[in-house]
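Exercise 7. Given the encoded structure of a 128-residue chain, write a plausible sequence.
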């Protein structure tokens, strides 16, 4: 049986939360204006169509809100979102070292290939 040696939940960073909140507020503002206009134009389907991007943003944020890391005696398991689970056998790991997840190296947050061919699962920029 694989005993869990280490487990950690890494939430998204503050910068990502601020950007997601700002974009969601813009989408909500657009939705409110659309509802107001659709009341006057008598077209409720317009409201439903405009609500789809806001719902999509909320689902995306909920899905990518953090990273679950688990190390067992045989493997490293990384769970990032509902559909992305990576399992790496311990025998296949050659090296591991902490690094700063800079925008210049990984060009964003998420599952990224770095400019030096490294693979990163990042939730924020910096030493987290």
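Solution.
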């Amino acid at each position: 049986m694989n005993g869990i040696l280490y487990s950690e939940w890494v939430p998204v960073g503050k910068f990502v939360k601020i950007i997601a909140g700002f974009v969601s507020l813009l989408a909500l503002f657009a939705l409110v204006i659309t509802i107001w206009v659709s009341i006057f134009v008598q077209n409720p389907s317009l409201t439903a169509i405009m609500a789809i991007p806001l719902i999509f943003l909320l689902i995306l944020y909920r899905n990518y809100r953090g990273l679950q890391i688990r190390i067992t005696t045989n493997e490293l398991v990384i769970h990032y979102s509902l559909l992305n689970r990576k399992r790496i056998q311990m025998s296949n790991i050659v090296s591991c070292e902490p690094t700063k997840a800079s925008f210049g190296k990984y060009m964003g947050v998420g599952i990224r290939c770095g400019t030096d061919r490294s693979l990163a699962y990042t939730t924020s920029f910096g030493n987290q």
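Remark. The two ends are 31 Å apart (CA to CA). Students should compare their own answers with the one above.
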